[in-house]
Design brief:
The complex is a heterodimer of chains A (249) and B (693). Chain A is α/β, with parallel strands linked by helices and 249 residues long. Chain A has a single domain, classed as Rossmann fold (3-Layer(aba) Sandwich). Chain A has 6 helices and 11 strands. Chain A is globular. The N and C termini of chain A lie far apart (70 Å). Chain B has 29 helices and 13 strands. Chain B is elongated, with a radius of gyration of 30 Å. Chain B has 4 domains: 176 residues; 144 residues, Fumarate Reductase Iron-sulfur Protein, Chain B, domain 2; 140 residues, Rossmann fold (3-Layer(aba) Sandwich); 115 residues, Rossmann fold. The chains are: A alpha/beta (249), B mainly alpha (693).
Chain lengths: 249, 693
């Protein structure tokens, strides 16, 4: 079972976030990055599948802040190939990123694509969907369990209200992973260092990523607090008359 | 005076003498073969770098052996009994050697005899005296064993009764003791029958025990054949014993001397590094050949005395770890794979986590994962061991294997990830490290920007744990008040790594040590101090291996020094207050600092009532070695709660004094969870200083 895992670096939310002078994006100067938590689960699920059924795991990412570190960590955890897509500008849209991913994995033999169901930095949740679209593959999202048998996979999807739905999907397919069946593993520093020395970090060009359109942030801001609330107290009559006077202005 | 001697091989025909020598030589060959088997086994281990200063090591071990000091420690009864058996054995061995040299060498070759006259009289006296001591010691041991002390209980804490069989251990114990008893008693009977058969010569009264026994058996008659029969029984049993030595518990007489000789006083204070090669192929131990020969010898050195078993906080709290059993399991496993030497051993199932498909994993099956993670690295086992076993190097090396395979619980994993990402286990951003200083009414110098005399290494818990920050500010305020020139590294400091290393995450430890040393190098200071005994240990003992050599004080030591120099003045204001003091493992046991905190307590006037387990024998709070980041809800009773009970057993004690940030967190909780709130208050020693200023 060969699995491709697109991963992404997102700002570490432990740090306090600042909006930059444009008012449309985060101030990246002091940001620390870490792997998107859902992508970490996607990678873990892929590695668990590999351990159970054999095959390979390929981690792939768009070039960006600290991305080498993330890819080496993926290799240290057990990814067989790690690929960095270059040639895209800063902050490509998810449409462009999905196009670039779809281009980059041409020529790689795969049965499944696992990626995080969403990323904490854009809450777009469309990466898996867009890739499925560009690759003309079936797609299931919010996946919490994958069981492969022959050319199909039985996947579970978490519905709201604690209900789970089970699907059978023809492979190859793209899945948006909500949670791996085990907590993403710890990778010891020695292994990361070993991976940094011994792993071939492949680079491929993004290719043609022209897409019809995409979204743009108008304004980014922190929740603005309102005027505050006034609690009206007193007897029922007092309260009633106060409300009346407020309505009358 | 020439007649004052005894006849060797009295009344023995020549063929009988020849037969005895033939059997004796065969026995010695068998003994040497067993000895060689052991040697071959240890040769399979890695080099341990312990062949420096061999003469010094020899005499140090000789001192421990001849005085039995390590056996006497905290168990006078067993110590005295062992001393009697030890010296009884040695004197009787020397005596027999003198007989052999005199008879087989001096007499046969040079035709002279020294074992006669006055020398023979003194010889007789000494042999009888130590023979009696020998027997008394052995019976003391039998009596002790009969009372079934916890130490000698072979029940396992990590496996169900049907999962193991340890009857071999008990058999070996019995064979060992009874062989020695029978040898000693038959020896006296040979002497008695000879004295009686010779008609009670006056000079034989020097053999006081044999002479007395002779008067009792005189009426039996047929003394000459009885003498010969007992001689043979004695001789054969002695030969059986010699043959038995290298295959049994009796081997401790030889191996344990070597183990004491090659043990290192700072073996666990300064853990072995992982070699470059090992780092490349996966740290930790996977096969027996990965162990050093000293570690392989550790496994064979254990006499099952159980001192570590009863001292261990994990075992005492119901965790599935007994340091004794860990060592014995490793011995059994080594015996089954790289060379069998023990005849009477144990069997146990080595499929701990059900992973044993083909070869059992050492870390995971032979020694269960949960066993390895139960260790608090408090060092009580190593300190208690009378024969120099270094349990902790084995435990940490096996933990390194678990870490390499990611075999750990989520909470610990999170802590390691946080330390890797932010340099602290709390998962707080680096720049928050010095946030505790905000509430001070003065500014602490930034040692990275200006020169200070003392660099304060604050540590994670003192910096981030809300319960501890008050104490940290008190330390700062006092040092500021007395005008001590000190500074901190602010966000330049990272977790010191002491416990990260003991978890087995050596790669992360190296990173932390290198980063902290780099920060130290950029700062300007003369000496370091810290309130954290864990940071104190690794900076003092382990950073030098990474190129960072510093003088570091624990704050208790520094406060003492400042009092001595007259820079800190305290009064005995707290006179009449009864307190007890808990020695932190990494201060008292690891680094021998037990006097400074006590001097401080004396200076502030409190009355110190010691807990039964104090100083080097202190009982761990349960937080060390990364346990503070692991789930302790499965324990029957937390070590910290047991410790609070120990303090309460002293009667009316107001304060439970600690000198370690982790202890403050652990014991404040334990007072509450054990339902003793209001009965005793946990206080940092700095609070007493503050009150007595």
């Amino acid at each position: 079972m060969n699995i491709i895992v697109p991963i992404k670096q997102v700002p570490d939310l432990v740090e306090e976030l600042e909006i930059d002078s444009s008012g449309k994006a985060l101030d990246t100067e002091w940001l620390k990055y870490k792997v998107n938590e859902f992508d970490d689960h996607a990678l873990e699920e892929a590695l668990l599948q590999k351990e159970e059924n054999g095959g390979t795991v390929t981690a792939i990412a768009i070039d960006g802040d600290d991305i080498d570190k993330a890819l080496y960590a993926a290799a240290a955890k057990g990814a067989d190939r790690v690929i960095k897509i270059t040639g895209l500008g800063d902050n490509p849209s998810n449409h462009e990123a999905a196009r670039a991913m779809a281009n980059a994995i041409q020529g790689i033999d795969y049965d499944m694509i696992f990626t995080g169901v969403q990323a904490v930095d854009d809450r777009d949740g469309q990466m898996a969907i867009l890739m499925a679209h560009y690759l003309s593959l079936p797609h299931v999202s919010v996946v919490t369990s994958v069981e492969v048998s022959g050319g199909t996979a039985t996947v579970q999807k978490e519905y709201s209200g604690g209900v789970i739905a089970e699907f059978e999907v023809q492979l190859p397919a793209v899945m948006g992973i909500q949670a791996a069946s085990e907590t993403p593993r710890y990778v010891p520093v020695a292994r990361v260092r070993r991976a940094m020395r011994g792993t071939d970090l492949e680079e491929v060009s993004a290719g043609d990523v022209s897409v019809g359109g995409s979204t743009e942030v108008n304004r980014m801001f922190k929740p603005e607090s309102g005027q505050g609330a006034e609690m009206i107290s007193g007897s029922t009559e007092d309260i009633a008359s106060k409300i009346v006077s407020l309505i009358k202005g | 005076m020439d007649e004052m001697t005894r006849v060797i091989f009295r009344n023995f025909p020549t063929w009988m003498q020849v037969m005895f020598y033939a059997v004796a030589f065969a026995t010695i060959a068998f003994f040497l073969y067993g000895f060689w088997l052991r040697y071959k086994k240890y040769r399979k281990g890695r080099d341990s770098g312990r062949f420096n200063n061999v003469a010094g090591r020899f005499f140090k071990a000789l001192g421990k052996m001849t005085t039995n000091s390590t056996v006497m420690k905290r168990d006078a009864y067993a110590g005295v009994a062992h001393w009697m058996i030890f010296w009884g054995f040695i004197v009787l061995l020397i005596g027999t050697a003198i007989v052999a040299i005199d008879h087989d060498f001096l007499h046969l070759i040079f035709g002279i005899q020294i074992l006669k006259g006055t020398f023979y009289l003194w010889f007789s006296l000494f042999m009888d005296l130590f023979g009696v001591l020998f027997i008394v010691g052995l019976f003391m041991m039998l009596f002790r064993r009969g009372r079934k002390p916890d130490k000698l209980d072979y029940t396992r804490v990590d496996r169900d009764p049907e999962e193991y069989n340890r009857k071999g251990f008990a058999t070996d114990d019995r064979i060992f003791t009874w062989l020695l008893i029978v040898i000693a008693i038959t020896g006296f009977f040979i002497e008695a029958t000879r004295i009686a058969a010779d008609g009670f010569p006056e000079f034989e009264k020097w053999s006081f025990a044999g002479y007395a026994l002779a008067t009792l058996i005189d009426s039996v008659g047929a003394l000459n054949p009885i003498h010969m029969a007992i001689w043979w029984i004695h001789g054969v049993i002695v030969l059986v014993f010699i043959a038995y030595i290298p295959y049994s518990k009796a081997m401790h007489m030889l191996v344990d001397f070597a183990n004491l000789m090659f043990t290192e006083d700072d073996a666990v204070q300064n853990l072995p590094r992982v070699t470059e090669e090992k780092m490349k192929e996966g740290m930790g131990y996977l096969k027996l050949q990965d162990f050093t020969w000293k570690e392989l010898m550790d496994f064979d050195s254990c006499t099952k005395c159980g001192r570590c078993h009863v001292a261990c906080p994990a075992k005492n709290s119901g965790a599935p770890l007994s340091p004794r059993d860990l060592i014995l399991d490793m011995r059994t496993y080594a015996d089954s794979t790289i060379g069998k030497s023990e005849w009477f051993g144990q069997t146990f199932s080595a499929n701990g986590n059900g992973k044993a498909k083909k070869e059992p994993l050492i870390a995971g099956d032979v020694i269960k994962t949960e066993t390895l993670w139960s260790c608090t690295t408090c060092m009580a086992c190593v300190e208690a061991c009378p024969v120099g076993i270094e349990h902790l190097t084995t435990i940490v090396n096996l933990r390194r294997t678990l870490v390499d395979e990611g075999d750990m619980e989520d909470m610990l994993q999170d802590a390691l990830m946080n330390i890797g990402d932010y340099g602290n286990s709390f998962g707080k951003p680096e720049r928050m490290r010095a946030k505790w200083t905000k509430d001070l009414d003065f500014k602490i110098k930034d040692a990275r920007k200006e020169e200070v005399e003392y660099l304060w290494f604050v540590g994670d818990y003192a910096s981030f744990d809300a319960r501890m920050q008050d104490m940290t500010r008190k330390v700062a305020t006092i040092f500021n008040k007395i005008g001590l020139d000190f500074g901190i590294l602010y966000e330049g400091e990272k977790n010191a790594g002491n416990d990260v290393r003991r978890i087995g995450e050596e790669g992360l430890y190296e990173m932390l040590a290198e980063d902290n040393i780099a920060a130290f190098e950029e700062a300007q200071f003369k000496e370091i101090f810290t309130t954290d005994p864990h940071s104190f240990n690794t900076i003092k003992n382990e950073y030098p291996d990474f190129g960072g050599e510093y003088t570091i004080h624990h704050y208790t030591g520094l406060l003492c020094k400042l009092i001595d120099e007259g820079k800190l003045k305290v009064s005995d204001k707290l006179k009449g207050v009864k307190v007890t003091y808990h020695d932190p493992c990494y201060l008292g046991r690891y680094n021998g600092e037990t006097s400074a905190p006590r001097k401080l307590l004396e200076a502030v006037g409190v009355e110190l009532v010691e807990m039964p387990r104090n100083k080097e024998n202190s009982f761990c709070c349960g937080a060390g070695g990364g346990r503070i980041w692991m789930d302790d809800s499965g324990l029957e009773e937390r070590p910290s709660e047991m410790r609070i009970k120990e303090a309460l057993s002293l009667g009316d004690i107001q304060y439970f004094i600690i000198a370690c940030p982790k202890d403050y967190a652990m014991y404040s909780d334990a007072v509450k969870t054990s339902g003793n709130e209001g009965k005793i208050a946990v206080r940092d020693i700095i609070e007493l200083i503050e009150e007595a200023l």
